[in-house]
Model the fold of this input.
Amino acid sequence: MIDLIWLVIALPLAGAVLLHFVGRLIKEPLSGWLASAAIGGAFVIAVIAAIPFLEGGEHGSYVLLWDWMPAVGARLELLWDPLAALMALVVTGVGTLIHVFAIGYMHGDERFHRFFTYLNLFAASMLTLVLAGNYAMLFLGWELVGLCSYLLIGFWFTRPSASAAAKKAFVVNRIGDVGFMVGLMVVFATFSTLSFSGIFERADSELTSATATAIGLLFLIGAAGKSAQIPLYVWLPDAMEGPTPVSALIHAATMVTAGVYVIARSAPIYEITPFASTVVATVGALTAIWAASIAMAQRDIKRVLAYSTISQLGYMFLAVGATAYVAGIFHLMTHAFFKALLFLGAGSVIHAMGDEQDMHKMGGLLRKMPVTAMTMGIATLAIAGIPPLAGFWSKDEILGATFARGGWFYVLWIVGLVTALMTAFYMTRQWVLVFLGEPRWDEGARPHESPPVMTTPLIVLAGLSIVGGLVNTPLRQTLERFLEPSFELVHIQHPPEGWLMFALLAGLSVLAALVGLGIGFMTYRAPRQRWRAFEEAFEPLWGTWEQAYHVDDIYGRVLVAPGEKLAEAAAFTADVRVIDGAVNGVGRLVRDIGQWSRPLQTGFVRNYGVLFLGGALVVVVWLVAGGS
Amino acid sequence: MIVPVGWYMGLAAALFLIGALGMLLRRNALVMFMCIELMLNAVNLTLISAGRAMNDINGQVAVFFILVVAAAEVVVGLAIIVAIFRRRATASVDELSELRG
Done:
């Protein structure tokens, strides 16, 4: 089966190519089903190919497709190991459900087939990223998912805000990419190769800790761009301009986890540099609490989820920074389930409310859309960390491992715990505002439950959000055994041993979750004036959160405005005056010389004769006088 | 009796001077053309006499080259003059100053 692993990438790619050329001819739902079949087929192949890993201890292998640039170790080769397999399963599995959901969501859009072309192209790119057997190919996938993200955020490009958001995402990602690229250059300068096997086996003996720190921090810049961490997270909330299935697939479940994946994949490099790891963890914890506080005060249903995603990605960074790689990947997986569910549920609500996204104008939707409400409720409990749902197990493992690391990580653990409370609060706030209370709909809103093509993926994801965490409990560490061969070169941080410590830590995080849940429920269950009063009691903090700490304004003033000034100076002073001035100056000089010397050309032959004779005489006199 | 080489040189200089003055003073294109030929042959004369005086064949060789080039030049030059004369019915070079800058 492993020889056919290239099909996992090729199937969605073929779907994209096919839809690109003949999509217009295929009627509306069929092109969506075709795309879903392509990625579903990839999922089936990935499942079958992943079976040998279930036993544990299997290392996986490299599959060489084509010698691309042998000199730099950049072959088109795939690495099919447990980590890649898990990522591929998440991408194709969640991806398939979102493809199916999108068939219902994008119904009636005039560029329906084009949407599925992009979705399939994205799936192929993301699979290239996670299955890559070397950094060159990984970077190829990395850039391709950036491109797809751009295309899909700007899918409704006739809206100025959508095309602006797409541009912003692209530019901010480029900033991160520069860091990643420089990191890859340092890697190549050190090892003279970009292939994983060559680098990781020699890292321990050939990498100095200073170089490792440089690589680690440069990779962190790239990862912070792609995975929306401080300070490069600003593109993700704006990316909500894309259609909701895009937000679910790319900006929650898969693409944004690429940064976490790269750091986990590069674990042997981070193993040498505890400093870079600590920086990763600190950035993650800071991002987690920063974004969670912003999420608490958002009114837009998708923006809550966007900041929630940033916050949860912060947890994953905290985990991989604390070298708890399995916990990080575990949370990546469970988060993919419940965050995709939340986004799809939000999409279902937005669809039902006729493109209304303001939660203040919702309320009381439980009766109208019971399936969406129940599934989103499950996801809310899962992300809040209520046992035994998926989020509890993964989040608790992260917090436990952070605690076990000790020292500075105690501080990060407290930050994580507070974030857990805030997470429970803002998710409960969202669910109650949308589904409970009195209806605050606009005139003419006719909310209705979505068709089965949309609710079925919700139900499947809800099931996964319930049981997804059971793959790695302190009782049965199936995922740990599964992933271990991919991390055999490094030390994996575990939560503290012993039942007492587990109960204590888990009890604390459950307590935090329950407190947040309780406050959220009690506050927003009450009539509108009451929760408005609650929010106003927190002024001016609440307003600052609602405005996302004014970060966009600050970036605009500190970075964008000077950048525009610089561009203006370059365009209208340096270019027009200096460059164009020099070019035009040369032209004018030549013209002036011509103007000045044209009277010499009289047109009278005898005139030339005199000059000629005079010249000849001068030469003769000069020769007679002795020359030289 | 052998004529000293200085006489030849004097004759050549006189011929050249006549040619140069004619070239500068006359307006008729045909006459100017003949003056150029005169100058050319004055130079030929110096080459021949110098070659003979120094017992060197190269003087004569150079003259052959000049004769051939001059013949070719005469063909082109006369053709141009005839063409101009047909269009303008004049051979005065002072009326042909279209190429002034």
Observations:
- The mean pLDDT of chain B is 89.
- The helical segments of chain B are 5-25, 29-53, 58-88.
- Residues 55 and 87 of chain B are 50 Å apart (CA to CA).
- The interface with chain A takes residues 20, 23-24, 27, 32, 93-94, 96-101 of chain B (CB under 8 Å).
